Structure formats: C-alpha cells, structure tokens
Amino acid sequence: MIEDIITKMQDDKTGGVPIRTVKSFLSKIPSVVTGTDVVQWLMKNLSIEDPVEAIHLGSLIAAQGYIFPISDHVLTMKDDGTFYRFQAPYFWPSNCWEPENTDYAIYLCKRTMQNKARLELADYEAENLARLQRAFARKWEFIFMQAEAQVKIDRKKDKTERKILDSQERAFWDVHRPVPGCVNTTEMDIRKCRRLKNPQKVKKSVYGVTEESQAQSPVHVLSQPIRKTTKEDIRKQITFLNTQIDRHCLKMSKVAESLIAYTEQYMEYDPLITPAEPSNPWISDDVALWDIEMSKEPSQQRVKRWGFSFDEILKDQVGRDQFLRFLESEFSSENLRFWLAVQDLKKQPLQDVAKRVEEIWQEFLAPGAPSAINLDSHSYEITSQNVKDGGRYTFEDAQEHIYKLMKSDSYARFLRSNAYQDLLLAKKKGKSLAGKRLTGLMQSS
Amino acid sequence: MATEALHENETLASLKSEAESLKGKLEEERAKLHDVELHQVAERVEALGQFVMKTRRTLKGHGNKVLCMDWCKDKRRIVSSSQDGKVIVWDSFTTNKEHAVTMPCTWVMACANAPSGCAIACGGLDNKCSVYPLTFDKNENMAAKKKSVAMHTNYLSACSFTNSDMQILTASGDGTCALWDVESGQLLQSFHGHGADVLCLDLAPSETGNTFVSGGCDKKAMVWDMRSGQCVQAFETHESDINSVRYYPSGDAFASGSDDATCRLYDLRADREVAIYSKESIIFGASSVDFSLSGRLLFAGYNDYTINVWDVLKGSRVSILFGHENRVSTLRVSPDGTAFCSGSWDHTLRVWA
Q1: Is residue B245 in some structural domain?
Q2: What is the pLDDT at residue A120?
C-alpha cells in the first residue's frame, strides 16, 4: 500500500508532487520536493482533513525508508520548506534487506575516504565505526579494500547522479542503522516472519560482498511444511457449507435494528460515552465510583439494568442475591440453585467433576431429592443417562430447560414484584425497603 | 460397496468444484437477506459528540516491546508481557508494579488474568501456556510455583481463562486452538480448521454460551462450539492476517482487526460481514480491537502507532489518538468500561479515558 502511494506521488502525469532541482549558493540540489508539497499531496489524495494526520503519515513513510530529508539522518516529515528526496526502489524495504554489519562497516569506511563536508560522519556514526573496527579487527584490511573499491566505482559516476545516489544510500542506512533514539522500522513481528517474500532466506550484501559463511537469516525461522488439502478436508468443507446453507439467518434490517437497540439501551451505562456518576476514577483520581459498586446497596441505574435481560441479573452478584431471595419467597429457589450449581460444575478441575455430578444429582434430581427441580420426562431421561458418564456437560440439557423456565416465568414475575419495583424506585440514600417487604411477604404466606 | 466406488470416482478436482459451487450458492442465499446497510439504518441514530480522550496513566517498566495485556476483574490491575520475556502485574491506577516474573523464553505474546485474580497465564515462543499463582508473600519466588498447562507445536499467540481459574483456552502458530484443564494439564478439546497460524481468540460473553471466535493468518475468522470442537460459523472477507477478534457486548456479533488495514464487524445471526471500518489514509495493519461497554465505540490500535476510535453503527471514525511512539500491539477496554489500556512496541502501556 505504501508503495502504491509513493509511486503515485512521483507520477507527474496524475498530479504527483512537483520534483525539481533547486539552486543553492554555488551548486544545485537535484531532484527534491518540499515537506509542504508532500503533506499537501497526502491531504488531497488520501482525503485527510487534519494536517497533523498527514504529517504523521508522512513521517511514517519516511521512517520506513521511502522518502527522506536530504539534510538529516532523522527520518521525519515536516510541513515546511525542508527538502526531501524519493528513495530508489532498489533500496525499498520490500526487497527484504537485512544488511550485515560488514556492509555497514564498508559504508562508514568509504564515507571517511571521501573528503566531502556533506559526507562527514555524525557523532553516532563515528562511534559505530569505532565499535565495528574493534569487532572486525582481524578482517579490517578486507573491509578497507572493499571500501576503496566502492569509492572507485562511485568516482566514475556523474556528479549530479552521485549526489542523488549518495543521499539514497545514506537514507538506506538511516533505516537499517537508525539514529539512537529513533524507531527501527525494520524490526519485525516474529509471528509474521515465516511467510516473508524472500524465498532464498539468504542475506544479500549491499556491496556485493560474498561472505565465506553466507549466514542464514536468524529471522527466517524454518517454516512448517505446507499441509496439502486432502479429499477429506474438502468433504468436511462441503458438509460445513451445506450446514451453512440450511442455516436460518436474519435479514440485515433486523440485525441492524437489534444492534442499534442494544447499543442505545446501554449507552447510558457506557462511561466512555455517558460520564460516570460521581466521576470516572481515571479522570478524577477518585475511586468513589468503585466503592459504590462494591457496596451491597445497588443504585437505581444498576437495578434498572437487571430488567434488560435475564443474563443481566445472572451476571450481577447483587442482582442474583435479590432474585434468589424472591424465589425463596415463592418456594422455587431450587431452580436457580440448580442452575448455579451446574455453572459451578463447569468450573471445576477435571478430577473433581465426577464427584460434583453425583452431588448435584442427589441434591436436585434423584428420587426424593431435597431440592427437586421440575424437569419434563424427556429431559429427565437424557440427564439420568448422562449422569452415568459424569462429565462437565452432563446437565447441559437440564440447565437449558431450567434457564428457559426461569426466564419466562420467575424472572418475569420478579420484574413485576414489589421487591424489584421498590428497589427500582427507592432513593439512593434511603434504607432498602425491599428487605422489609420481602420478610412481610414470607410471614403472611 | 457401491458407495466406496462412488468415493473413488470423486477426484480432488470434482470435490473442489462442488465446494466452489456451494460457496457460490451460499453467497447467493446470504445476499438475498442483505436488504440494507447498517450505516444506512444508523443514520437516524444521534451522532456522538466531540471526543476528548487522553492518556491518564503511563506504565513504564518493560525493557522491550509490550506484546500483550489483560485486565483483572477488579478493574484496575493489569498483567502485561513483552519481547524480553518479562511479565508484569501492575496496579495501573497507582502505576505500581505488584509482581514481575521472567519467562525462560523471549516474545511472550500472550498473557491473561484468572477470573479470581489469583493467577496469571502466559506464553509465547516456548510453545506453552504456563500458569503462575500470584502470591503476596515477598519471600516467595513466583517462578517456583509455575505450572505448565498447554503444549502446542508452535508459538502461543493467545490465551484466555474461561469463566473459571480451572480452564484455559489457547491459540497457536501451529494452526489450532485448544481447551485445557489447568490442574491436570489435560487437553479437554482441540479445534482444527484454520489453514495457518491462529493469532487471536475471544470467548463469547454469554452466561450460558459455550462458544468462542478465533482469527488467523488464513484470513478467516471462525466461531467454535467448545463442547464438540466443531466450527459452527466461518467468515472470510479480510484480505490479510486477522490479528485480533473481539465480541460485541451482546455476543451477537464480533469485530476483527487485520493487516489489510481494516476492521470489520461480523454478525452471527446474519452470518455475514455487516460493516467495514477503513480510511484511505489508514494504510498500516490493525493489531488489536475492543468495544466500549455499549458497543457503540470500537477502539483499534494500529501499526502506525495510532489508535482510531470508530462509531460502530455509523461506520465513521470518531477520533484518532496519538501518543505511542511505536506500533500499538495490544488494546483492551477495562471490565467496567471506564477506560481502555494500550500496549506498544515503545515499551509502555497507556490507560486512556
């Protein structure tokens, strides 16, 4: 994607950035563009409204090595008259360069051989050179000779061409050996390394130096042998596709309505959209909001949420407790307790599962169970069969039945109950009226 | 006998063409239900106001790229892992480091907090997922109590506890996902189907559900039944690796972030992609996505160092957040939705609100 943009930028037939030669003192600066031109081009061609965004993108394109400031090692983009030059495609990152330190040594060495002010080493480069001289002490003669050879080749080139090539070469090294403190954009996400474009997996030299031991790049981890698609794979795919074709799906209009309705219902609970009361702890540095949520006294807003769906009340500890108390008043708490027990079963370590299955069976389903739940005969049949194998999903069918029962029956009644309605209307500071009402109910029945 | 002969006659090519024609038929069927676009219906929804989100906390302490992070249920503690093998547990509200452990491998790409808050899980290039109980005893060496739970044949890219400390779900570069019993280390279920590395996963937010979604380098997002190990739905519209998947809070849809520089929304009931979040100026991959509590906002971290905030319903970008100085590699909204945290290759984590 970057390469498409960079190519377009240089194409003057389709409104690219104006590339020109600028006169300066005694010499000419060939083939440059200004930062402002680049930023303007990006804004116009990529529909960017904010120049800050365009500058950021420009800086990234520079940091990646596609365009560079001619007078700076640090690769950023400025929205002013600073001059930039486009990088030669030869040096583009997509060519999978991973230049060795020998190449870098040759480069720095040859820079010191050319007596030009513009080629003088920066402090960090001088330090790098010193370090490399120590590291390559034994083969320094070889490096020196390679550098000399490179200088000879360079001298044969046209003056203007050399200016351009020198700057492009410097920019290449600014990407691969960045100024200390700058991001090294050549760093890779190791998960993606296996599928790089470089099939040879061999490092190539910038200066055509063949090493005795052509090292295999450590970054190119041995890729897995690609598993060929078998007939079985395709058969499975066909089965899958047939299942999907038979699936009953909703129309987009219905789906859109559902997504909008859900989001609209919860927007008042979304602290990043509707400011939290009393405050968002991260913004105010005050944890009052969290303290309130920890207390057993639920806010009106929290109570209202229990009414959104059965899952909401099951998710909230305080809501569950209220619902349980209500069920106890109706002498049907075994349903919720069964549901909770099965949830708990699924959280057990494997070795404890069989025991828990037995316990749940005895408590809720066995003949004469103390908290007998009401299952239809079909479901009961399935469950008693499952119990024989005692696994985590033994009670799935039964749990689903009980869930549906609670949702359509008890939950609906709870929402209409005085207990819930009082909580919904109760003032935040007042004592919970619900507690008193519930006990009143139990005493009278 | 007759059926055997029939199978023999089915060449790979004929099976492939059957599969292709079924894909075409499926696309036809789905297209019939595509009567409107989400953003069109959402035109009637009130536009969001101006967004002012800032970095409220910066967590410094990792010595190398931060690769992964996860919130604790207590809404303030965070576990994060990095390229240099360090895993740190922070109280991000005070920015204090509470625990630190050094893994025996580099590139710890996955880390997760246990629901109880008493343990963490992590792994990466060691191909394993290990669980460390968190102890407040200063004399106790965290690494000593380490338990190896999952074993894959390639790097661990993601891990997540189910709603219990006792089970862990993992995703790996070996192309599979797996469910493990923490106590015994036993494999409870494996999930095969991706054609390349699996990079991410997310558990459905239901109280009763048993499904999760995964995304991989095969450009597919797949929804799995945890009980049977079967893939129940698959989506293939991205043009490159899917780096991140996250369920919409109702569980009816999920979002994905990809190297193709887009984020997309897939609805499970429509069995289709229903929105795409992209801009001409966004040309770097999205590494990590998460929804705000209501599902109205989608936060996405990118390889261009920025975080883009999307209006999920309208499909437009609400805000762009600058601050990180290198790729954003991980991003999660806090359990109560009051903030979100981003981790970056610039060695830091930031909490935004």
Answers
A1: yes
A2: 85
Question: Rounded to whole angstroms, what are the CA distances from A275 to A271, A283, A285, B334?
Answer: 5, 10, 14, 15
**Nearest CB to B267 within list A255, A273, A314:** A255
Q: Closest Cα of chain B to A427: distance in Å?
A: 23
B317 — contact with chain A (CB < 8 Å)? no
For A66, A89, B286, B324, the CA distances from A42, given in Å and listed in that order, are 14, 20, 20, 22
Bridge partners of B171, per DSSP, are: B158, B177
Q: Are B148 and B122 in contact (CB under 8 A)?
A: no
Whichever domain contains B214, its CATH number is 2.130.10.10
Write the single-letter amino acid at B100: A
Taking the C-alpha atoms of residue B315 and residue B196, their distance in angstroms, rounded to an integer, is 30
Q: B73, B112, B104: which is closest to B86 by C-alpha? A: B104
In whole angstroms, what is the distance from residue B50 CA to residue B47 CA? 9
Give yes or no for a contact between A191 and B173, defined as CB atoms under 8 angstroms apart. Answer: yes
- Quick one: pLDDT band at residue A433, thresholds 50, 70, 90? very low
- Contacting residues of A for B85, CB less than 8 Å apart: none
CA A101, distance to chain mean position in Å, is: 33
Q: Please, which pLDDT band fits residue A211 given cuts at 50, 70 and 90?
A: low
Distance from CA of B180 to the nearest CA of A (A): 10
Dihedrals φ, ψ of B217, to 5°? -75, -5
Q: Which two tokens stand for residue B303?
A: 């390889």
Count of the separate structural domains present in chain A: 4
In one letter, which amino acid is B337?
Answer: G
d(CA A338, CA A363): 9
Q: How close are the terminal C-alpha atoms of chain A, in Å?
A: 74
**Are A306 and A378 in the same domain?**
yes
Query: Which of B335, B336, B331 lies closest to B352 in space, CA to CA?
Result: B331
Say how many CB pairs under 8 Å bridge A and B: 238
Name residue, tokens 């998947």: B245
Residue B22 counted as domain residue: no
Chain A contact present for B237, CB below 8 A: no
Tally of CB atoms within 10 A around A259: 27
Cα separation, A61 vs A39, whole angstroms? 11
* Alpha-carbon span A442 to A413, nearest angstrom: 16
Domain that holds residue A266: 230-274
Residue of chain A with shortest Cα separation from B27 = A245
| CA dist., res. A225 & res. A202, Å (int) | 19
Q: Answer whether residue A266 shows pLDDT above 60.
A: yes
pLDDT in tens, B193-245: 999 999 999 999 988 779 999 999 999 999 999 999 999 999 999 999 999 99
Q: Is B2 exposed, middle or buried (0-12, 13-18, 19+ CB in 10 A)?
A: exposed
Nearest 5°: phi and psi at A380? -60, -40
Shared domain for A250 and A345, answered yes or no, is no
User: Do A253 and B12 make contact, defined as CB atoms within 8 angstroms?
Assistant: no
- 3-state class (DSSP) for residue B203: strand
Average pLDDT over residues A283-287: 97
Backbone φ, ψ for residue A168 (5° rounding): -70, -40
Phi, psi of B66 (to 5 degrees): -85, 130
Do the Cβ atoms of A419 and A434 come closer than 8 Å?
yes
CATH of the domain at A289: 1.10.167.10
Tell me, yes or no, whether A313 and A385 share the same domain. yes
CA distance linking residue B291 with residue B337, whole number of Å: 9
Threshold 0.90, pTM exceeds = yes
Q: What is the pLDDT of residues B169-191, one digit of tens each?
A: 999 999 999 999 999 999 999 99
Better-scored residue on pLDDT, A262 or B5: A262
Which of A234, A227, A229 minimizes the C-alpha distance to B18?
A: A234
